[in-house]
Design brief:
The structure holds two protein chains of two kinds. Chain A has helices at about 5-20, 65, 85-100, 115-135, 160-165; strands at about 70-75, 105-110, 145-150, 170-175. By secondary structure, chain A is of the alpha+beta class. The radius of gyration of chain A is 15 Å and the shape is elongated. Mean pLDDT of chain A is about 70; it is low at about 1-65. In chain B, the strands form seven sheets. Chain B has a six-stranded antiparallel sheet with strand order 1-2-31-30-29-28. In chain B, strands 3, 4, 5, 6, 7 and 8 form a six-stranded mixed sheet that branches. The chains are: A alpha+beta, B mainly beta. At the A-B interface, helix 4 and strand 3 of A face loops of B.
Chain lengths: ~180, ~450
């Protein structure tokens, strides 16, 4: 840890302090954005990248670094893209604008609380919020597909604030 | 204050020994809470057996368990019976009165051919010394369990004035995962007591929101098998299924009209905003019911067909509203608390079951539509998906136990609760069938 850049150490400490447990295995959000959020800052890898991969070049701002972050987290019952995730979304938007052949699927999710079909609605709203942000950056509508899984595909199991925060998300999935 | 009725204790003890041997079988654990009114002491005397070989089915045990499961009856255990008559003429009312038993059932199980049986039974009011019922029910061997439930339905209705629900079924969704990743989702149909589980469809992608057709022959549900939410209708007996809605975006929350011709469902039509529509199944004709920027979903038809209740967050948090099946202005019907969602209408149309936020906990509540009064029925932290039994006396819902999703039932007066432990995985989204018509 000591060898890492100061910004990263701060981010790690914040995550550790706020999340309380089990954050070591989770890839961190890029340092390219503003200050990291509290409980929802642990960016979970979407499986297509190795956990912790964001460490290596996260200090180098720009599309490539931020592209490794493919998950946007949301507050309870909200669908606004929070300040700390705007850079990530913006980077993806610019990348899509520059690469018209690339396609993404925006998978919206909710935490387990409340009724299931209403949560499909929340996940859909979140996916649409990310879609709008990508369109604003010049991505084409035909490059973007959305789907809401509601609470049906949690990223982590567990019935606590930490798990819920990690499950309220939109995953940006690039078509192979 | 909780107590277990004697049969429940026997079941719990029996279950402990069963778990390892038959992990796939769901068993009811009956748990009477909140001090139910004194259940009626009854005796379901073991039926006499007239046939070759071993008794094919312990009919009286099934009947006893059905009756006990409602919390309204306290069946005497067979080993406490001083006499076990199998014919009405042999019933000594004085003896049963001494035992405190108020109703007694006697009868015989006769073999009438190869795999053919006759269940004969009589029901007596012990206090009046009066015969209340007498039936002969022919049954194939494979149907003896169902015939036992029919017998329980008849007894229940005679003694309470309310139709029994022991021959009804429940549909639900199970999810298993491995290493934290979802592995398999199943749509399952089982008897109301959890027995006879049959998998209707299995998928690696989520399955949601099963809804029974009014004739009990079909289920509508949501499947993500093609990587997006689509609505299917599946016929139970044949297993054939039809994709009825796969429009762009969300296709969800199907619920049948009382005449079985339409579904109310939720569509986003690729616009990212959920609204309610009705779908005429014969003509595939869509009618828009709502046009709001908020989430409108979870439609449920009233039994008289005149209203559709649904969830909307147009006022901020989710609340339940009512709209006519042709659309138009919607009227808000829930006002207590900041979260009321996923309405289901009682069979008499007078109450709604909803998921409500009760001081930070998601619980099942009943809303009295005439007086606006809300009663919270359950005490879990994440109770959801309530569904009325067709006689309106009981609701089944999903709850969590030890971090797992399980099913439970609660009586509409909140007094009697049962949980149905799952053998494996998560169990969720129960839907109680209509009465059996065949």
């Amino acid at each position: 840890m000591i060898a890492k850049k100061i910004a990263l150490v701060v981010a790690v400490l914040m995550v550790a302090a706020c999340a309380g447990k089990g954050t070591q295995d989770e890839g961190l959000s890029s340092g390219a954005g503003a200050a990291q959020p509290s409980t929802s800052s642990g960016g979970v890898s979407d499986g297509s990248m190795g956990a912790g991969g964001a460490f290596d070049d996260s200090a180098a701002a720009g599309p490539r670094a931020s592209m490794k972050n493919r998950t946007v987290y949301f507050d309870f019952d909200r669908d606004e893209v929070k300040e700390e995730f705007r850079q990530i979304v913006s980077d993806h938007g610019k990348y899509l604008a520059a690469n018209p052949g690339a396609k993404v699927r925006l998978e919206g999710h909710a935490d387990e609380r409340g009724s299931r079909e209403y949560n499909i609605g929340l996940g859909e709203r979140r996916a649409q919020a990310v879609r709008q942000a990508l369109l604003l950056q010049g991505a084409g509508a035909s490059q973007l597909a959305t789907v809401s899984y509601g609470e049906e595909r949690p990223s982590v199991t567990g019935s606590d604030e930490e798990s819920w925060a990690l499950n309220r998300r939109v995953e940006i999935v690039y078509a192979p | 204050m909780r107590r277990l009725v004697p049969i429940a204790l026997a079941l719990v003890l029996g279950l402990a020994g069963l778990v390892a041997a038959t992990p796939a079988r769901a068993e009811l654990v009956i748990e009477i809470s909140r001090g139910a009114e004194r259940p009626m002491p009854v005796a379901i005397v073991p039926l006499g057996w007239q046939g070759t070989g071993a008794v094919p089915m312990d009919v009286s045990a099934i009947v006893s368990r059905d009756l006990a499961s409602t919390g309204r009856f306290d069946p005497l255990a067979p080993n406490e019976m001083v006499q076990k008559p199998t014919a009405g003429a042999d019933v000594d009312f004085q003896d049963w009165r001494t035992m405190g038993v108020e109703a007694v059932v006697v009868g015989k199980l006769r073999q009438t051919g190869a795999g053919e049986y006759l269940v004969e039974f009589e029901l007596f009011d012990v206090l009046r010394g009066e015969r209340l019922l007498g039936y002969r029910l022919p049954s194939a061997g494979a149907a003896l369990r169902l015939t036992s439930h029919r017998m329980a339905d008849m007894i229940y209705e005679k003694l309470t004035g309310v139709p029994g629900i022991f021959t009804t079924r429940i549909a639900y969704v199970t999810a298993t995962s491995r290493g934290g990743r979802p592995q398999s989702y199943r749509l399952v149909v089982a008897d109301a007591d959890g027995a006879n589980e049959q998998v209707m469809v299995e998928s690696r992608e989520p399955i949601m929101s099963p809804s029974w057709s009014p004739d009990g022959r079909k289920l509508a549900y949501v499947s993500f098998e093609n990587k997006q939410a689509e609505v299917y209708v599946q016929t139970l007996r044949s297993g054939t299924r039809e994709k009825v809605s796969s429009r762009a975006g969300v296709n969800g929350a199907p619920s049948w009209s009382p005449d079985g011709r339409k579904l109310v469902l939720t569509l986003s039509r690729g616009e990212g905003n959920l609204d309610l529509f009705t779908l005429d199944l014969a003509g595939q004709m869509l009618t828009r019911l709502t046009d709001e920027r908020s989430i409108e979903t979870e439609g449920a038809w009233s039994p008289d067909g005149q209203s559709i209740y649904f969830t909307s967050d147009r006022a901020g948090g989710p609340q339940v509203y009512r709209v006519a099946p042709i659309g138009g202005a919607a009227k808000r019907v829930t006002f207590e608390g900041g979260y009321n969602a996923r309405p289901r209408v009682s069979p008499d149309g007078k109450r709604l079951a909803v998921v409500t936020n009760d001081r930070g906990n998601y619980r099942i509540a009943l809303v009295d539509l005439e007086r606006g009064f809300t009663q919270v029925l359950t005490d879990g932290r994440q109770d959801e998906s309530p569904s009325f039994a067709p006689n309106g006396e009981t609701l089944i819902y999903a709850t969590r136990e030890g971090g797992r999703g399980v099913l439970a039932t609660v009586s509409a007066d909140g007094r009697v609760r049962q949980r149905i432990p799952a053998a494996e995985g998560e169990v969720r989204e129960p839907a109680w069938s209509p009465f059996r018509t065949n």
